[in-house]
Each structure stands twice: as structure tokens, then as C-alpha cells.
Amino acid sequence: MKFLLDFFPIVLFFIVYKTLGLYAAIYAMIGATALQMMITRWQTGKFENTHLITFGLLVVLGGVTLALRDPAFLMWKVSVLYVVFAAVLIVSIWVGKKPLLERMLGKELDLPNAVWQQMSWIWGLGFVGIALVNAYYVNLALGARELLFSSTDLDPKIELTELDCTTTTTQDLCLAAQYTEESWVNFKLFGTMGLTFILIIITVMMISKYTKQEQ
After folding, report:
1. CA–CA separation, 51 and 42 (whole Å)
2. CA distance 193 to 190
3. What pLDDT is attached to residue 41?
4. Residues 206 and 119 sit within 8 Å (Cβ to Cβ)
5. Rounded to whole angstroms, how far apart are CA atoms 106 and 153?
6. Model confidence over 187-206: pLDDT tens digits?
7. How far apart are CA 93 and CA 120, in angstroms?
8. Which among 68, 102, 182, 198 would be 20 to 30 A from 92, CA to CA?
9. Global pTM?
10. pLDDT(215) > 60
11. Contacting residues for 62 by C-beta, under 8 A, at least 6 apart
12. 113-151 and 72-91 are packed helices; what angle lies between their axes, rounded to 10 degrees?
């Protein structure tokens, strides 16, 4: 249930992007993230730090994207967010009495300290991996976008999803810009969800022998 709640804003972003375009999807994601925070607050009695960080970056970088009509800020938010999470997880191995994962999950799982440290490294490096893959898609999307608008007299603030590429003088560049932006959106949902699920599977495999011993 928590996994679905964590990805609810991204799923909504994906749906709204496919129907109404990028900028409407940003508004939807901001609203969905705020709702996500409220639901978590109602369920647990407190706000989660990860949600607060995500919401703060989304409001700032999403707001700049909307103000300037430049998707670069929102696209890079994914990499920034996952690098921040990775840094926090890895640094927590040495800062504080316990790694962050143990502080979050220690009440449910009784694991040796070495395992908590290993899990912190796995999730930290996994998040770095997600940030790097996102950077790859962002570079493709922004590069294709820049090439399109530098080669035409089209307004760079226009929604790419609104363009009819058959009416442009550079149809191939238009299609490339649309395709690469859509590829980034697809990665934002399916890529991040899939890679996170892989990290969950690795974690379950790591702790399974300890949970069996307790039984």
C-alpha cells in the first residue's frame, strides 16, 4: 500500500501528461504530492522527511518550470532528488548512532548493524543509478528540444505535445523532440518504479534469512 502511495504522484503526472501536456501535469503532481503528505500525516501522525524534501523540490523547480515555461528544471529535479536521498542514506552510516534505514525500519526488523550498512550502500548506490539514468534521458530530451527551437522560429515556450509536426518545416526535429520528452516521462514512471522494485527485491532477499531465523 505504501509503495502505491509513494508512486501515486508520478502515476498521475504520467496520465495528465498523456492527456493535457507537461505543464498541466506539473500542477497535478504538486497537488498529488500535497495529498500524499496529508494522507501519510493522517495515517502515521507525522510528515515523512522524504515527502517534505520531494514536495519542496517539486514546488521550487516545478514552479520555475511553469514560470519560465522551460522543462529543464523539472526534468533535473529527479536526479537532484535521488542524489540527495543517496547522500543522506550513505552519510547516515557514519553520522548518528544508527544508519537512517535502521532508524526508519528498526522497530519492524531486527538485523545486524552490518546488514543495515550494506542495505544503506545498496539503496544509496541504487538511487545514484536512477539519477544517472534520468540524466541520460534529460540530456536527450533537452538536446532535441534545443535543436528544434534553434532551427525554427517556433516559440520555445510552446507545449511540445501541442505541436503538429507534419505542419513544421523540420518534421524530423519536431518528432525527435516529442519522442525524447515522452521517453523521459515514461522513464519517470516505469523506469524509477522498476528500478525501485529491483532494490526492494534485493532487500527482501538480504533480510529473508534473518526473518526465517526469528521464526
Report:
1. 14
2. 5
3. 84
4. yes
5. 58
6. 999 999 899 999 999 988 88
7. 7
8. 198
9. 0.88
10. no
11. 26, 29, 30, 73, 74, 77
12. 160
